[in-house]
Amino acid sequence: MKNIFIIGGSGFLGYYLIKQLKKKNNLYCHINKTIFKENSLKTIKFNLTNKIELKKFFLKKKINLIINLSSIANVNLCEKFKKKAHKIHVKIPKILSKIAKLLNIKIVHISTDHLYDGKSRRSYSETSITNPLNYYAKTKKYGEKEIAKSKKNLIIRTNFFGKNIINKNSFTDRIIFNLKKLNIIHLWRDVYFSPMHIKYLCIIIEFLINKNEQGIYNVSTSKISKYKLGVLIAKKMKLQFKKIIPKRFDLRKFIIRPKNMSLSNLKLLTKYPNLKKYLLLNSQINLLKKDY
Prior knowledge:
Order of helices and strands: EHEEHEHHEHEEHEEEHEEHEHHH
CATH topology: Rossmann fold
Structural class: alpha/beta
Shape: globular
Oligomer: single chain
Helix content: 25-40%
CATH class: Alpha Beta
Strand content: 15-25%
Largest sheet: 7 strands, parallel
C-alpha cells in the first residue's frame, strides 16, 4: 500500500483515478474549493507554493508517491489568465519536483497532447520534437521539464474522454446531450487526436505506477478526427449521427492550436503488449456506451 498525495483530484480525471486507486492505497488529496463527496478520502487544503509546509506534510504522512493532475485544460483561459496558467503548469510542478527529489519520492505527472505544431501527418512519439503553439501548450512543456528534474518521475502524455461526473461538460457529454435533443452540432474534420476512455486511462496509470515505470509514456488509442469520433459515438449510442456536421478548423475564430495531436502508443505496446485490449478505439467506444 502506497501513501499517495494527489493534486487536482477534484477534477474530471481525478474523480475516476481516485476510484481506481483508493482500494489498494492510502490517498491524500489536495483541494482548492471543491468539496469531496467521497467520505473515505483524506482531503488537505494548504498553499502548494509553501515548500516548508509541503515538506513537513510529506514527511509526517510518509508520502511515497505524488500524482499531479492539476491543469487548466481550456486553451482560451490560459491565454486570458497567463499568470494563473504559469503557476499551475510550471511553478507548482517545479516545487513538487524539487521536494520529490530531496525526499526521494516518485512523482507522476499528467501532461498533454498539445505539445506539437501538428504539421506531421504521423502520430507523435515520446521522442518527437515538441513545438507548442499556444500558452497552454508552452506552459505544459515547461512543466514537463521541471518534473523531469526529479530523480524518479513518470510523465504521461494523453487525451481522454468519457462521462464527466463533476460538471457534465466533456467532449462526449456535449455530443450525447445535443444529439438526444436532436440539435445540430459541428465537429472539426481536420483536427486529429488519439483519445483514451478515462476508465481505461486510469487502469493504465495504475499499471505503470505498479510497474515503477519512469520517463515519458504516451497513453493513447489510434489517430482519428474529432468529427469521425463523434460519428462513431453517435452510431454506437444509436443517436442521429447525421446531425453532426463536419467543419474545418478556422484560425481566424480560435486561438492557434495543432491540427494533429495524435500520439503513438508503440512504446507502451512494445513493452506491454497485454495492454492492447485497453488501447483499441472500438473497445473505448463500447465502454462509453455503458456510461450513459
